[in-house]
Amino acid sequence: MAVTHAGQASPLTLSLRITRAELLLAAQRLDEAAPVLDALESVPEMPAPLQLRIALARVNHHRDTGAIEAAQAALPSVRELADGLGAQALPLRAQIEALEASLR
To answer: How far is CA 18 from the centre of its chain?
Structure first.
């Protein structure tokens, strides 16, 4: 429905696709989440708040698949995105900190 009303590249449609990836990760359906994340990462001109959600999901995917070094390497870009967003990133700060703690 979002695609019909807003289009493929609308923030609403992209947000729904990110939510799908996040839910797949939460359900530990890691093989299904990977191509969703790959497709999202290739979208040009993604709004910064959505970039942050994708970056967090990718770090979670790395961690959950055992790619700890890749997850740790991606964390600085997550922090940089969050810092650049300022107050807009506040809802995700606790998730970022928990993720950092899980990778120590």
So the answer is: 7
